Please model this.
Amino acid sequence: MATFIEMPKLSDTMTVGTVANWLKNEGDAIESGDVIAEIETDKATMELEAFDDGILLKQIAKVGEQVAIGAPIAAIGEEGEEVEVPDAPSAPAASEEKEEEPAEEKSSSSAPAASSSSADSSDRIKASPLAKKLAKSEGVDLSSVKGTGPNGRIVKQDVLDAKEKGGSSSAPASAPAPAAPVTLPGLAIAETQDLPVSSMRGVIAKRLVESKVTAPHFYLQIEVNAANLLATRAKINAELAKVPAEHGGSIKLTVNDFILKASAEALRRVPTMNRAWQGTTIRQNGAVNLAFGVAIEDGLLTPVIRNAESKTLKQIAIEAKELIGKARNKKLSPAEMSDSTFTVTNLGMFGISSFYGIINTPNAGILSVGATENKPIVNEAGEIVPGQIMTIGVSCDHRAVDGAVGAEYLQHLKILLENPALSLI
Model:
């Protein structure tokens, strides 16, 4: 009897998963422990293992399809065995129980079931999946039907009306369907379309809204003279380039490595910044689990360097490089993105002078790092001289920390960045 492989729950926040890639084809022999597919969760892309021996009889879920947790995605059994797919919970995005409601427009636009397999022009017509199916069975030409749903979308009742009249259904005169936007030839920057929201993008949106709504943010900013930091980095990298790779010379320090190290050390000096609001209590974290932002195609991932306060600059640089590689290949495990106590985000490489990040709750703060810019400064002798200024800011959760704590943290961070040798101790 065939065994069904179900969509597993790979993270605490996961409600659906997307089949990113099939690594085994139908008809392939499968052994327990074989990786048969890659599953995109709300956080990363994970490998899916089979726990039975046999033949991959059927790929139930297609590549790119969102599947609810517990729903079957593949069947394994004996060669030639027939497969009857059992009923299973559908992914929330595929629901079309109430197509007249505005939410139907959003849900069906992101559901794989909304794509018709037919090659006629109805594929390009804005209609709900149910309306398309009904039109096909009743022989109604969707191109002659006017939609009364959200944004002029054709819904089930429009098709029924068209069938009764033997032609097209007309939208009520009081609520005409909006005209399609006009795009002048040669001026379009991209095709106008409604893109499905990935699991990752959906979770990012939800958490950012929760953070801004629940955590009262306040913002502080300070300027850092980065001249010594840049000079120290250049000298260290120049010396490391002379060392053979087998002796540790392959590493190249980035400005962000120094920032991560200094951020962790500043939290050691100001531990009250390394806190988390928990409703009835405030957690004082005993170690610095430092998250940092890595931009990927569909959003932002925040891998975590654990116990960063006890690691050397070199150790942090090596670990950060490894985590960045995993993030860009969507190979981070949930454990590598959990339990952070503070977050660093850097947009300096894009030339952004200054900005403030949204707090990665339950962290009490997030550090925002801008670009280093050539600016005139006044030295200790009162002279105006060239300077290399980096603007850093911190967004704080006022429930867990006060302004004085955030200011003290930035003060110590400024000292550490302007005297980078302290990071080598």
Summary: The chain has three domains: 3-92, 98-165, 200-424.
